[in-house]
Write a structure and sequence with these properties.
By secondary structure, this protein is of the alpha+beta class. It has two helices and 13 strands.
């Protein structure tokens, strides 16, 4: 049995959780999220808590126990406060600009990259090369930010590229440092 799965998920005021036979719906002030679940777990709403229990002692049921508990917790946090990731663009001439539902980036290649922002996400940029991606779905925020970072990964010699704000780039010494 999962240690995290045993913990109940608290439902704050203003959030409603509805459990159907294979679907969990969470509604809150920022929006609505839905998640399918398997028959390996049983999800119940008791008072102001959501309780997830495995239906058997099989390995798949125990794995799904903690997974669905955290997915529901992420849904509750998403509809109340939301999620955001910040990317930093470093390099001479590297820049990004949000234009409506498009993110236009100049990353040192001969042409610009234009990324379409998925529905449910908002992207803001500033002049110093900072991109902030925010939304209510944690998986969508993380996936889109990973796709943007993949366009120009940070390189270890000069540190140029796109990195997460909390990421630390381990710098290498160039040819002049070797003796």
């Amino acid at each position: 049995m999962s240690k995290l799965g045993k913990l109940p998920v608290a439902i704050p005021a203003g959030v409603t959780v509805t459990v159907a036979p294979s679907l969990v719906t969470v509604k809150g002030p920022k929006g609505e999220l839905k998640q399918d679940y398997t028959n390996n777990v049983k999800i119940e709403v008791k008072g102001s808590e959501v309780i997830v229990t495995p239906t058997s002692n099989e390995k798949a049921a125990n794995a799904a126990h903690g997974l669905y508990r955290n997915l529901i917790r992420n849904m509750v946090v998403g509809v109340t406060t939301g999620f955001s990731k910040t990317l930093i663009i470093t390099g001479v001439g590297y820049r990004a600009e949000a234009k409506g539902k498009e993110l236009v980036m100049n990353l040192g290649y001969s042409s610009e990259f234009i990324a379409m922002v998925p529905d449910g996400l908002t992207v803001t940029t500033d002049g110093q090369g900072k991109i902030t991606i925010s939304g209510i779905d944690k998986q969508l925020v993380g996936e889109f930010s990973a796709q943007i970072r993949k366009l120009r990964k940070p390189e270890p010699y000069k540190g140029k590229g796109i990195r997460y704000e909390t990421e630390v780039i381990r710098r290498k010494v160039g040819k002049t440092g070797v003796k």
